[in-house]
Amino acid sequence: MKKLYNFNNRTIKYIFYLLFTLTFLFALTSSNLILGDNNVTKIGTTAFTTIVLLIFAFIGLVFYLSSKFRNFCKWFFIDNRWITSSVCLLLAVIIQIVFLYLVHSPIGFDVSGVHQGMTRPNDVEIVGYFSVNPNNLGIFLFQNLFKNIFHSTSWELFEFITMFLVDLSAAFNIFSIAIIDKTKVPIGMYIHAIWLATFPAILVPYTDTWAIQFVAIYIFCYCGIAYTNWNKFIKFILVVPLGISLSAGYFVKPSTIIPMIAIIIIELIHLLKKGHHQWLWLFLLCITFVGSVGSSYYQFNKVIKTQNYVRVYTFRAKPVIHFINMGLSGDGGYNAKDSFKMVTLIHKKDRINYSVNSIHKRLHKMGFGGYLAFLLKKQGNNTSDGTFAWLRDGDFVPMKHSPEKKGIRGKIQNFFYLYGNNVRDFRFLTQIWWCIWLGLIFFAWKDDRKITQTMRLALVGGFIFLLIFEGGRSRYLIQFLPAFLILATCNFETSIKQIKSLLVWK
């Protein structure tokens, strides 16, 4: 049993590093990191990036030369880390609020389709949209709930709700970190503060940002059950929100269940270890978990099936295999031709046959070696972009493309609007942060703790899912960010030690 346990643990680690090494290398070689003129994107960085880099270089030089400055930094960021990290997190939230106030804009494509469902549900285009994409009924009803509470459908409202949900996920991530290792909480708050301050996706009220909090909630519930000495009654109660959040996340974005699958696999593997297992207690938890998931799934599914806000002809729905077919085309992402076929082919059997035949043709054309090369490239497309595909994901962009010409609003919009002068500056600086973030995870190969392996397997599941289904851009990583954030925090000290040891001349 011990040999089987060790084999499974090693296998998870090897598969993780196989995929994650590709992610790290593609991030380090991303076109986002080209300074100055960029022949790939045809948009270059400006003097803003140069000034920022010079400021950081100056700070680094002073840090290296001045012991007083080093002592001040140690006092400010380490000795008073609880206060400083809390202030940084608060500043990040303030930055988010100012950002939404200055930059808010309607968003196109599916986001617009879901939003218009609340304002003109009987429109033939909206009926057609939800008939072809009934998977978006979950987020539609979720948003409709807030519409009924606030009696408003303004984009500003739903963007601020998006911000709240993203920040809620950050709060539960930090709660999870506190359970795993309380001493890591300040590091976690520093990391979350940087993430929140560089995350413009709060402008996009769609499944990625409206499902992330469910993942963070059930990970927190799991940590409370598996990594604490809390009273068993409290742990028993936590199983209920765990199941509810899992089901709720599934109906908003089905792939959010992947981290839960990873959790279950890791727990099963750890049953192979020798030791005293409380089988009756485990059985009770399992029964409660199944009951919580099952009953909440039934209720959520019933609400969706019986909703009467918008007419839905489910026989027009895109089959699941369509998303596998799109995942084999181009850069592994959205394919307009395939999507158009799903709309024009009336019978479900015809849509399935088209997708199956298309998959066979694409695989045959690539061949085995070509398919492996395609997967290699797709892994980079799926995970390398630290902006999470901002302005690179079709029409998932602010519908107001040009920034205002005057004032602070225009200056900020220049970093985030399609025709802004500083878009490349945003991409460059955010990509640097993404590489640091990935590095904090990558260099912790000596950390084999249970929570580390769990989060690694969650990312492996996410990577494999995106390699099989529609991917092609890093926006789909947003749902898995709780695992990225928890890993970076828990691995921080191990990675720093490893990096220092690698830099020491021997």
Describe the structure.
α3 crosses α4, α5 packs across α6 (124-132) and α10 (207-226) packs antiparallel against α11. The model has no long low-confidence stretch (mean pLDDT 93). The chain has helices at residues 2-28, 47-65, 67-79, 81-103, 109-119, 124-132, 137-150, 155-180, 185-197, 207-226, 232-252, 258-270, 279-306, 320-326, 336-344, 348-383, 407-413, 423-442, 450-468, 481-490, 492-503. The protein is mainly α.
Biggest pleated sheet? none
Q: Residue-averaged pLDDT, rounded? A: 93
Query: How helical, in percent, are the residues?
Result: over 70%
How many helices? The count is 21
What is the CA-atom radius of gyration, in angstroms? Answer: 24 Å
Molecular shape: globular
- Residue ranges: pLDDT <50 for 5 or more in a row? none
Q: What's the number of extended β-strand segments?
A: 0
Indicate the proportion of strand residues: under 5%
What's this, in brief?
The protein is mainly α.
Annotation keywords:
506 residues, mainly alpha
Give the topology.
Blueprint: H1 2-28, H2 47-65, H3 67-79, H4 81-103, H5 109-119, H6 124-132, H7 137-150, H8 155-180, H9 185-197, H10 207-226, H11 232-252, H12 258-270, H13 279-306, H14 320-326, H15 336-344, H16 348-383, H17 407-413, H18 423-442, H19 450-468, H20 481-490, H21 492-503
Helix pairs in contact: 1-16, 1-18, 1-19, 2-3, 3-4, 4-8, 4-9, 5-6, 5-7, 8-9, 8-10, 8-20, 9-20, 10-11, 11-13, 12-19, 14-16, 18-20, 18-21, 19-20
